[in-house]
Amino acid sequence: MTAQRVIRYHTDLGIITLIDPNLAFPWVFFCDDEINCCFIKEDDKGMNKIRVTNYSDEVKRIMLATTDGLYFSDNLGVNWTLAQGELPVELFSNLDVSLVNPDIAYVGHNNFFRTTDCGDTWTQLSIPSDGLYINEIYCDPVDPGKVFICKFQSGIYVSSDYGNNWQSVMNNIPYNSNYNYISGIAVNPLNPDNIYVNSYDYGIFISNNGGESWEEFNEGLRTRYADGHTIIDPTDTTKLYLGTDAQSVWSITRTPTSIDDIITTLPTNFSAYNYPNPFNASTNIVFTLPNRADIRIDIYDMLGRRVEVITDRVFEPGYHAIRWQNSDINSGVYFYKITADDITETGKMMYLK
Hints:
Radius of gyration: 20 Å
Distance between the termini: 41 Å
CATH topology of the largest domain: Methylamine Dehydrogenase, Chain H
Shape: globular
CATH architecture of the largest domain: 7 Propeller
Structural class: mainly beta
Number of helices: 0
Number of domains: 2
Strand order of the largest sheet: 5-6-7-8-9
Largest sheet: 5 strands, antiparallel
Helix content: under 10%
């Protein structure tokens, strides 16, 4: 692994930059031409996190978590509306939208809420009572049902059922007992068991088994005593970007540890496959895109009946994986059909219950 401090870094997807190196708490800012994903430093208006979801085929809804509630805009930020109804007007310091299913989003601080319809309605969910408040929310980039939260003074938790039940994955991550602050969750989209987190006072830790165990990942990194946010470059999963509240942003290059993530350049053609196959609980549908495209994935049974549409949105160039699991289906043969603009590919899958 190598690490270096950067102030501004251009990639094929956009720009990663340190907003202001003189701020006490600078954040990583990352976005493409459609404000697809970014972190924003909290300012005197209380702005903290902003995310974009596809409200409809024509409208991209921007959600903004603030100290005075959640706001949304359906016209790229020209006008903002306070989300009300089931969602109280209170401090929301964290927000994330699922990349797999942008209808799903989570927001929270002292309380935790989920929407499954782009923010039209919200449901309050229970979270572990340990700790003080939620300091990070992170949606898994492959599994639409998996979401992570970090709680100040208690650590990191994961839910595999859309936030209904939680399990701690702190395990052997060291932490400051007086200031237990875990942040910077990042999951490798080509190998979802490959996870990164930042532990205040101890630096970056990596797991290659879904959080069951962790190893230190700090070689060449001189900033450990800080809160951090991490981004994995989707066009090259050996590259990570870390922004910290110690007035620094770092680019990190790691050595791949699995055949699942050894590809480090953009694909030159469209392809698709699923693994494992046959499968028992879930399977990953993997596809490569040389160009930005509208992607729809349909699942069919042996009789040609559509079982489920697991995604229908725009994807950027790169390597992508979406996990499919459906406990209501019977054992047997199923087919996935991926439509990428005017290209269609079909694959056969065997489900063993």
